[in-house]
Amino acid sequence: MSVAQHFSQTYAEARDKFFAATRVRGLGVETHVHPLTGRDGEMLAMDVARDGPRNARSLLVISSACHGVEGFCGSGVQIALLEDAAWHQAVHDAGVAVLYVHGLNPYGFSWWRRTTHENVDLNRNFRDFSAEPPRNTAYDQLAELIVPETWPPDPATVEATSRFVAEQGEKAWQQAISGGQYHHPQGLFFGGDAPSWSQATIRHVLRDHGARCARLAWIDLHTGLGPSGHGERIFACRDDADAYARARAWWGEVTSIYDGSSTSALLTGMMWLAAYEECPQAEYTGIALEYGTLPSMQVMTHCAPTSGWKTIPRPTTRRDAASSSRTATPSTPTPTRGRNRSSRRPSTRRTARCGG
């Protein structure tokens, strides 16, 4: 099988391939059903497959689609690993159980959006909502430039943006936009005003599967920032020197948002912080594996027309909340693949370029 065959053109196709790969491996799949349906009316779900015993001392989580459309890359990596005999032998010999979490944000995956159905950036959504939200004053000042009333932006908006970048630098522009904000619900990188469906679901998965392990590792798969095709290993823990040393010992060159070595900005409300809260007994070490696409300024530009309530279709079909979780076995029929969307999709996968 060629590498390309692990990847898909629709969410439904990716989900079919994930189920097929787990079935060949002899793994059951837990299906946590999303309350809405997909772009072609298909069921949406966060699907979880565990390869290894429940009492394993070491657990490795490999997740895809934190940022929706970026799941096309992450799903392909997961499927390739599920079909790799040498990989399975290596983790078995090391005594490591592997948890494949497919479709953290299935809504964005299906609808080719970076955000959840709540227009929330899942990797900015993990904060204490009982406390006053942090203020991103730089975003406040630039909000009308970041998501203008018209797209493409008019000449005045382009000029004002260029002036800010010339005076403050690209890093300042990136930090203002992508660091996370909680006061502009139609804006970019909005962290939400409540826990999203995806947040609640992945917390449940972590509690269920991570409560017994002594060591927990997490590789979250992304696309967007950095040189095209290059996989940057970005430290995904608290600012902890011991954890950073472990990450570098395991994965080699690892960059960090804390010391400025990463292409990513310093973020708020990061998803991986849930590992400390839901699995407090475990020694946690994680990275985001970010595959580059375009230069950072182009990545930020491509985020705007595909985010916010102005552009997200609002499906009306909802599923019964009582059926929100079930367990599928390898013999469970896989869902019907989505129809060919070539006439309905944009000509470029813009949201796949919005990393971080």
Description:
The chain is α/β, with parallel strands linked by helices. 32% of the residues lie in helices and 18% in strands.
Search tags:
11 helices, 18% strand, alpha/beta, 356 residues, globular, eight-stranded mixed sheet
Query: Any idea what the radius of gyration is?
Result: 20 Å
Order of helices and strands: HEEEHHEHHHHHEEHHEHE
Overall residue-averaged pLDDT value: 88
Q: Total strand count, please?
A: 8
Unreliable stretches (pLDDT < 50, length at least 5) are 320-324, 327-352
Strand content: 15-25%
Instruction: Tell me the distance between the termini.
Output: 31 Å
Strand order of the largest sheet: 6-7-5-3-4-2-1-8
Relative helix content: 25-40%
Largest sheet: 8 strands, mixed
Count of discrete alpha- or pi-helical segments spanning 4 or more residues? 11
Identify the quaternary structure here: single chain
Instruction: Write down the overall geometry.
Output: globular
Secondary-structure content class: alpha/beta
Summed up:
The chain has helices at residues 11-25, 71-82, 85-93, 106-111, 137-146, 155-168, 170-178, 197-210, 241-251, 274-278, 296-303; strands at 29-37, 43-51, 58-63, 96-102, 215-228, 231-235, 283-292, 325-328.
